Amino acid sequence: MRRLTPFxxxxxxxxxxxxxxxxTGAPLVPSPWExxxxxxELTARGLLVKYVVASLFRVTWGYLLALxxxxxxxxxxxxxxxxxxxxxxxxxxxxxxxxxxxIPIAILWFGVGDFSAVFLIFLASFFPLAVTAMHAVHDxxxxxxxxxxxxxxxxxxxxxHVVLPAIVPQLxxxxxxxxGIAWLVxxxxxxxxxxxxxxxxxxxARNAGNRYDLxxxxxxxxGVIGIVLDLAMRRLEKLDFVRWGYVEG
Amino acid sequence: MSKVEISNxxxxxxxxxxxxxxxxxxxxxxxxxxxGPSGCGKSTLLNIVGGFIQPSAGTASIDGVPVTRPDPxxxxxxxxxxxxxxxxxxxxVAFGLFRLSEAEKRDRVTRYxxxxxxAGFENAYPRELSGGMKQRLEVARALAVNPDVLxxxxxxxxxxxxxxxxxxxxxxxxxxxxxxxxxxxxxxxxESVQLADRVVIxxxxxxxxxxxxxxxxxxxxxxSAPRYIQLRDIIxxxxxxxxxx
Lengths: 249, 245
Ligand SMILES: Nc1ncnc2c1ncn2[C@@H]1O[C@H](COP(=O)(O)OP(=O)(O)OP(=O)(O)O)[C@@H](O)[C@H]1O
Ligand SMILES: [Mg+2]
Known about the structure:
The complex is a heterodimer. Chain A is mostly helical. Chain A has a single domain (40-248), classed as MetI-like fold (Orthogonal Bundle). Helices cover 78% and strands 0% of the residues of chain A. Chain A contains 10 helices and no strands. In chain A, helix 3 (47-79) crosses helix 9 (198-207). The longest helix of chain A is centred in the last third of the chain and has 38 residues, at 155-192. In chain B, strands 6-7-8-3-9-10 form a 6-stranded mixed sheet, sandwiched between helices. Chain B is globular and about 50 Å long. Helix content of chain B is 33%, strand content 24%. Chain B has helices spanning 42-49, 89-94, 102-115, 131-144, 161-178, 189-195, 226-239; strands at residues 4-13, 16-26, 31-35, 57-62, 65-66, 74-77, 149-153, 181-186, 198-202, 209-214. By secondary structure, chain B is α/β, with parallel strands linked by helices. The interface between A and B is medium-sized, with 23 and 22 residues. Bound molecules: adenosine-5'-triphosphate and magnesium ion.
């Protein structure tokens, strides 16, 4: 019984949704059943897999690129008070700008297509990752840094063997948040900058004949994949060499 | 020639006079306890000898060479939180051996894990160890690089009193087996008399050496022997404490 509890809210929501559609008789709003059938139709037409793959492809590239650049950048800045004093104000100004505000510039630079979407996801992931790495460096226990120095490590070795493993637990939390943001942004980017992917599916279904059943089907898929991504990231927190960084156990 | 030579050493932090004119020489293989009230500059002194901070005046030398920075031939042991939580017992012990070959590394790790009694816990993470085990792990990590001097700053301060007694016995056993020079900071009078060849008694801040006392009792020491009690009481009165609670 306990194991079903998480699904209870979902069940009630679907029931209420169904009831509301029946009672109001709104012509365009699909019932849960119609949305479900929409998913079936998209699968049959081969669009679902194609669009899911397209969206995941963009997220993967933008996100991995951000990871590769943001983490070393964050560590380097975090370890040097001078660099931090110089760069932090800039980061703080850029960070609150929604990645979506960059869409016109992305299109200007990269045109309509994958590059624009990847660039937007890169931007969206870069800031949270860089800021997490920067702050995490400050939390490294000085005792551990001293031990590294005592054993004769160079600065590079100290970063590889002490700083990096010490910040991984916080980094994983940042990675999870960044991936969540990336997934939000890819949908928005696809509504404007490309003609494939789950975001495109949603605008396209509406524009080409008010197929709101397909709109909602797309929304459901976005939600499901979002959860799967988040659960996958959560598993990283269970790794043996990072568990110390979270609440005991 | 002495192993560690501290001469005319003084330390100020801003306007605070912390150490004043410290002179001490430590023989190779000697176990020296530095004892004094809280805030008298014991940790500061150890950090200077360890090369982590520079003195305001005077020098600390090892083997005749002035100390200017940390050196893997002399390892500083912190309280138990110095172990790396992201590494297993084996990996912690191997930490300082990053320049050695895999085979050499494996030999040393096995040897020192054994020596400190952590066999069977090679793959455990520090979070799965007790405080005393973590402390032993840190000692093993230090010994693995085969240093000639060990600095210990109240290493057993966070342990319960039973574990503390056991750890002292272990440390003495290791010291006798490995023949290291040890500088051991404590504010526990009993601890200093149980461990040291000589006890350096410091005054309150600004820290000065009040007296250096030879503990002329062979190991293992009988804690109820008249000489033990006599030496302990000398320290009590030197520090200005009546031996009563
Ligand atoms: N980096 C520093 N800057 C300024 N003052 C310092 C610094 N380090 C230590 N002090 C001061 O120097 C004095 C001696 O400190 P130290 O830590 O060496 O004492 P201690 O003898 O080890 O004390 P305890 O037994 O409590 O560990 C203290 O008054 C402390 O406030
Ligand atoms: Mg101290």
